[in-house]
Structures are given as C-alpha cells and as structure tokens.
Amino acid sequence: MQLLHEEGGELRIATVLSSSGAGDTQSWQASALSGKHLKLKSKEVWLQFEATNPQAVLEEAHGIAATIDLQLLWDCASDHEFAFQVIAKEYFGDTVSTPQLIGLAIALQGAPVYFRRKGRGAFMRAPFDQLQAGLAAIERKQRDLLQQEVWQSELIEGKLPDALSTQVNSLLFHPDKNSLAYKAFHGACEQTGEHPARLLMRCGALDSPLSYHHGQFIQAHFPKGEGFASDFRFTNAEYEKAIAGLPTAQVKAFSIDDVGTTEIDDA
C-alpha cells in the first residue's frame, strides 16, 4: 500500500512497511521513493492507495497538475471548505484515477492565490476580490520580470536603457536593491563578470575610471551636492562679520621650510 503524505510543504509518496493503531492514532513505518525510512502519522497522510509503480504514478500526477485549469477549478468549488477528493469528482467526473486525484491535490497545494489551506487535504476557495487582487499582483510581477530581462539584455549588449540613464549615480553609489533597475544592473554585472563601473563605461554612461572615483569622492564628502544653492548670496559685510566672529588661536605660526624646499611659505 502507498501513502500520499505532506513533507516540507510538498506532496510525496511512500510505500508502507508496517502500521500500528487505528483512526486518528494510526501510524506507519514507510519507505520513501528515495529509499529513506519514514514514520508517518495519520495527520500527515492525505490518501491511501495501491500502486505497483508509485514513481510512475507521481510523475503522471505532476503532469496532470500542470494541465489543470485553476480558474475552472475555482469555479467548480463551493464557498465552503471541501476535501480534494470531493472537488476531484466535480472536475474530472465520477470516475477519477489515482494519478488524477493526486495531480489535483498537487495543483490545489500549489495555488494559494486560488485556494486556502484549511487542514489535511482540505481547502476553501479564495473570495473573488482577493482572487482578483492576487491575479493582478502575479500579472504585475510577470511584467516586471519581463522588463528586468529586457534591461539586463541591453546592458549586456553594451546599451544603456533610456529608463536607466538618470539612475547611473544611484545604481553605482546608493542603489535601491529592491528596484527593477538595480536587479537588471546587478544581473548584467553577474552575467558578464564585470565591475559595475566597467559595465557602465562599456555602455557609455561613464567616461573613465576617474569619473567613477570622482563620483565616489563626491558621494562620500558632499552627499548634498558640490555646488551652492541657486539663491545663495553672501555680501562683503556678512563675510567680514563671519570672519570677525572666529576665535583667534593662541599659537605662534612657524614654518618648517628650509633652504632645500621650494614650496611657497604662507605662514
């Protein structure tokens, strides 16, 4: 006899070696498809069945799971909690094979946007508004991944995407690691093995290594910018007042120059 059980969030098949107890207290000594020895409790087992080739059953089940129409399955489900064996008949008809049953269980387990887990082998379909929000989020993520791939490909080819042209300094010196721009840039650097500055030079976004090191210096010592505000004004009177307010050091200035130096002595 075989058992469909959950391990680490995945559904697996094991072959029974021995069993003890009954009902909710029943447990089994079993062998996983990998040969690993297992002790399974009733609360971990979704289905008991007979199969001469459990590996083939699991492979067929995964193939079936990939073809299941989740939207149709959601439409078939009621608003109440249900067991996967029950909805299997709604989806496949009254005659359901073991691979179909296991495949549907795998599909339900892998579709949290459509179905909520309510216990061992039990589910409830997500409310319509939550389903729509979840699907919209998936679609948005897919669009973002596609955009990231496009930008990454352009960077690898030595082209700076227009959308990244204003983000060169931020990508180099203070990137938002959750942004699509950074993920595309970082992915391109990893794929080419290039230093970020070297990649940007190849894309024409940096003139030279000097530009990179100058940018590092400015970011470290002038994070607010190296220029003055456009409305900055400083009159001579304000300058004299500021100088007059400075304390006078109680030291005597001296020079360390000698006859062998050529520097101008400002002391």
Q: Can you describe what's shown?
A:
The N and C termini lie far apart (about 95 Å). It is elongated, with a radius of gyration of 34 Å. The longest helix has 29 residues, at about 130-155. The protein folds into two domains: about 1-125, no CATH class; about 130-220, no CATH class. The model has no long low-confidence stretch (mean pLDDT about 90). The strands form two sheets. The chain has a five-stranded antiparallel sheet with strand order 4-3-2-1-5. Strands 6-8-7 form a three-stranded antiparallel sheet. It has ten helices and eight strands. It has helices at about 55-65, 70-75, 85-90, 100-110, 130-155, 170-175, 180-190, 195-200, 210-220, 235-245, and strands at about 1-5, 10-20, 25-30, 35-40, 45-50, 80-85, 115-120, 120-125. A hairpin with a 2-residue loop joins strand 1 (about 1-5) and strand 2. It is of the alpha+beta class and about 270 residues long.
